[in-house]
Design brief:
The protein is of the alpha/beta class. The chain has 13 helices and nine strands. It has a domain of 231 residues: Rossmann fold, CATH 3.40.50. 40% of the residues lie in helices and 9% in strands. The strands form three sheets. A four-stranded mixed sheet has the order 1-8-4-2, sandwiched between helices. A hairpin with a 2-residue loop joins strand 6 and strand 7. The N and C termini lie far apart (149 Å). It comes from Pelagomonas calceolata. This is Sulfotransferase domain-containing protein. Keywords: Membrane, Transmembrane, Transmembrane helix. InterPro entries: P-loop_NTPase.
């Protein structure tokens, strides 16, 4: 008995065949584009709503501006009307008061007249130019060839090193006329001690070693100032020097009491030096140059003021230069704030008035102060060699006097 085959519907055969055919060809039926259509419509609706809202906001802003402008015009008109009504109803303004009579002039009113400034060296500093070290000039010129002879200023703070530099530049000429025969400070720093020579270099010389000059080839010209006036200058501009320990040191009586001016001098931020007082500082610093065996010059600040031409002529000749026939004086302020100079400074006219007064020289010093200065600073041969010695009794009498023994004018303004 034979088996029977399965029955297949006629409608099933074409569908199965078509499905097999599509599978063999790898084709799929495309999806409906409804999602893209919905996205486009949504974006357009959002943009339309945004534009409509912006138009409405602009319309409201314009309406608000118009309302505000109208209100301002209305208020202005109201104020104008009110002011006009008040003016029409108010009484006329009163007439201005008569001018007050001027007081009669005071008869015989004293008129201050400034006394002329004298160019003569005050007699309490002696006569003539005083320079220490002129006997070393020949040795210096023999040691150095003409084209490498150079000089540079040195000195303590407030001694006039910038004035010396200006006067030399204006009045001293060298044979080659290159202008390279002077530096604005010695290589070890013009305010640093001489013992730093060769061991320390000022900022302008801190380049390559082969470009550094030989320190011994430069003639230092040291400016020294009267210790009694120098201490008062330090009270006005102390720079890196610290010595104010008493209330009187921060008043017009500075530096009294001199004995209590223990001094800390920071030549460099990490290299402080200590001195028992300002006179000890003056004696020690200048003493290094005074006791040096190398060529050097020590000149007076006072000679730069009153004997400028003769002083510059001798310094210029010593270093191998030629003084100009027509001397030019430095009348302006020599200190430059860009180089760290702060505080009050004097031009030449003010300096002549200030330092030409013997009363101002000893003002505010006590007997103990003056005796201490003579004992400490006077222990240096430089004190008497430069004419800074004084009699204590005479100094007290002059300093306490109301009468001004001066070679200048009224000092009350300075």
């Amino acid at each position: 008995m034979g088996g029977s085959s399965p029955r297949i519907s006629r409608t099933t055969l074409p569908t199965v065949a078509r499905r097999d055919k599509d599978r063999r060809r790898g084709r799929r039926r495309p999806a409906a584009p409804w999602a893209a259509l919905i996205l486009v419509v949504g974006v357009n609706c959002a943009l339309y709503s945004l534009l409509q809202s912006k138009k409405e906001a602009a319309r409201l802003d314009a309406s608000l501006d118009a309302t505000v402008a109208w209100r301002e015009r209305a208020l202005a008109a109201e104020e104008t009307v009110a002011a006009l009504a008040e003016r029409l109803g108010a009484p006329p303004p009163p007439p201005p008061p008569p001018p007050r009579p001027r007081p009669p002039p005071i008869a015989h009113q004293p008129v201050h007249k400034e006394e002329p400034v004298s160019d003569a060296l005050p007699p309490f500093y002696g006569t003539g130019v005083k320079i220490v070290g002129l006997d070393t000039c020949d040795a210096y010129r023999k040691q150095q060839k003409p084209h490498i002879r150079r000089w540079a200023p040195a000195g303590m703070f407030n001694t006039g090193t910038n004035t010396l530099l200006d006067l030399m530049h204006m009045n001293c000429q060298f044979p080659d006329r290159t202008g390279r025969h002077g530096f604005w400070q010695v290589p070890w720093g013009k305010h640093n001690p001489l013992s730093w020579r060769g061991a320390h270099w000022a900022p302008q010389f801190q380049g390559e070693r082969r470009f550094r000059p030989d320190p011994l080839s430069i003639l230092p010209v040291v400016v020294v100032k009267d210790p009694t006036t120098w201490m008062k200058s330090m009270c006005r501009n102390q720079y890196e020097c610290r010595f104010r320990h008493r209330p009187s040191h921060r008043s017009a009586a500075c530096p009294s009491p001199v004995k209590e001016t223990q001094t800390t001098m920071r030549y460099q931020p990490t290299k402080p030096s200590f001195y028992d007082s300002l006179p000890h500082f003056w004696r020690a610093w200048n003493g290094e140059y005074l006791n040096s065996t190398a060529p050097r010059l020590l000149i007076r600040f006072e000679d730069l003021l009153w004997n400028s031409e003769e002083t510059i002529r001798k310094v210029c000749t010593c270093v191998g230069g030629r003084p100009l026939r027509r001397f030019s004086q430095a009348h302006g302020v020599s200190k430059d704030a860009r180089l760290g100079h702060v505080g009050p400074v004097n031009d030449r006219a003010k300096a002549l008035r200030l330092y030409g007064s013997e009363a101002e020289r000893f003002r505010h010093y006590t007997r103990e102060d003056l005796e201490y200065v003579r004992d400490v600073a006077g222990a240096s041969p430089l004190f008497r060699a430069l004419g800074y010695d004084f009699d204590v009794d005479d100094a007290l009498r002059v300093g306490a006097s109301r009468r001004r023994l001066r070679f200048g004018g009224n000092l009350s303004r300075f």
